[in-house]
Amino acid sequence: MQTSSRSEILADHKTSIVIEDVELEREPSAAATLAKPLTRTAAPRLGPEGLRDIFATCVVVLVLLAAMEITSRFVPDYIMPSPVAVWNAAKELFFSDPYHVAVTLARLAVSVAIAMVAGVLVGLAMGIFPRVRPFLKAIVVIDTGIPALSWMLIAVFWFRNSEVRILFILLVILLPFYALNVYEGVRALPKELVDMIESFRPSRWQVLRFLILPHIVAYIFLTTKSVIGYAIRMVIFAELVASAVGIGARMNLAQSTFRIDQVLAWTFFLVILNLLLQALVNGFEKIALKWRAEASIR
User: Fold this and answer.
1) Is the distance from CB of 211 to CB of 127 less than 8 angstroms?
2) Which residues contact 124 (CB under 8 A, 6 or more apart)?
3) N or C: the chain end with fewer CB closer than 10 Å?
4) What average pLDDT does this structure show over 273-289?
């Protein structure tokens, strides 16, 4: 009798253990089902805020055009032309100066690409090698304190070729942005993740490939979006000072001939170019970082 009662107790205990195990196995699936809707809500999409931004941009553009039209009726054309005059000048420049547009775009693309690669390498060196970090950081900080105009004048003295001048100017101006942001990205690596990777005793190349590079991609895109508008302004300024070809040179010619309609036409073109490049970088960012879930705050 005692043996049978003990066996019944053990059987009941095993049954309760099995039931608890089944419940524990079911709990993660329930948590996963609860997490799925949250993931869907965090997916990137053009929500009401994005539509409001587009609507606000359109309203601002219409207000500016209306202000130009009203002002042009009370002042001479060489002070404020009408939007129709600016549109006619834009069509004229579009068909007569495509070469200058292509040259400026090529200079911008090459300069940003080289500055990106060089800045990422400097930022990685600052984050990975503690011995050279103070020296590289000092060079980058000193570079950020030198005015852009100083670099332009130095480039005129140092280089004969206009393309080398413009490349040098944009390189020394844009490189610190990438270097400092990549360095901050390396510093922002979670310590727990670094400790976990180091527990496998990886090589330096493996740490760079599987941990650091995927982490700093977001910082590279963020820096690119931040410097696009600044790079456009700098390449125009550099062309105005150090080149006879490009949009900056054509704007200088329009200013010397009192063609403010052409100056405004080039200005509107550069604004549109900035918006298009921003959209292009955002598209590449969504493709490269599609694995990353975006948090949405309600």
Assistant:
1) no
2) 182, 186, 208, 212, 216
3) C
4) 87
- Predicted local distance difference test score (pLDDT) of residue 35: 39
| Close Cβ partners of 214 (under 8 Å, ≥ 6 residues apart) | none
* 3 state SS of 137: helix
CATH number 1.10.3720.10 given to 81-288: yes
Question: In what helix (H) or strand (E) does residue 262 lie, and over which residues does it extend?
Answer: helix 260-288
For residue 246, the Cα-to-chain-centroid distance in whole angstroms is 24
Encode burial over 192-231: b for 16+ CB neighbours within 10 A, e otherwise. Answer: eeeeebeeeeeeeeebeeebbeebbeebbbbbbeebbbeb
The domains of the chain are located at 1-41, 81-288
Tokens standing for residue 189: 């690596």
The token pair at 277 is 């490049």
CA distance 227 to 285: 15
**Alpha-carbon distances, residue 182 vs 76, 148, 155, 216, 275 (angstroms):** 50, 22, 27, 6, 24
Low-confidence winner among 17-31, 57-71, 156-170 (lowest mean pLDDT): 17-31
